[in-house]
């Protein structure tokens, strides 16, 4: 389990496989987002990853699911997605659904995160 009590508490509601997958993707995001700030929102059941304080600095979030984890991008409609990973029909947000360790394609996920970081830097 996670060494962060807030993350551990959030993940305790999910099956062990979903916990491990979420922790794997979390570790990746903590490694690739520069100066990352992590915040757990228990009511929303997400882990937010930001470059700075406050919601406007959010790069992405993790939403654990019973059968995997979603990586969410608030401005997902504005991100390049040549690999077709993003799904959803919200006005702006898009998600990457990860159902197994096979779905953790580090270069493709890193490319989306890099694009979200660049979009953030352009706006802040």
From TrEMBL:
This is YdhG-like domain-containing protein. Residues 19-117 form the YdhG-like domain. SUPFAM superfamilies: YdhG-like. Pfam families: DUF1801. It comes from the Bacteria. It comes from Sorangium cellulosum (Polyangium cellulosum).
């Amino acid at each position: 389990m996670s060494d962060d009590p807030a993350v551990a508490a959030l993940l305790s509601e999910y099956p062990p496989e979903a916990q491990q997958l979420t922790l794997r993707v979390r570790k990746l995001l903590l490694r690739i987002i520069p100066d990352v700030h992590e915040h757990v929102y228990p009511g929303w059941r997400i882990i937010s990853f930001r470059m700075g304080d406050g919601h406007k600095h959010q790069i992405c979030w993790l939403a654990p699911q019973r059968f995997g984890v979603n990586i969410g991008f608030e401005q997902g409609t504005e991100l390049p997605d040549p690999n077709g990973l993003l799904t959803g029909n919200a006005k702006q947000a898009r998600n990457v659904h990860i159902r197994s360790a096979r779905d953790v394609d580090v270069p493709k996920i890193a490319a989306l995160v890099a694009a979200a970081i660049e979009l953030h830097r352009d706006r802040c």
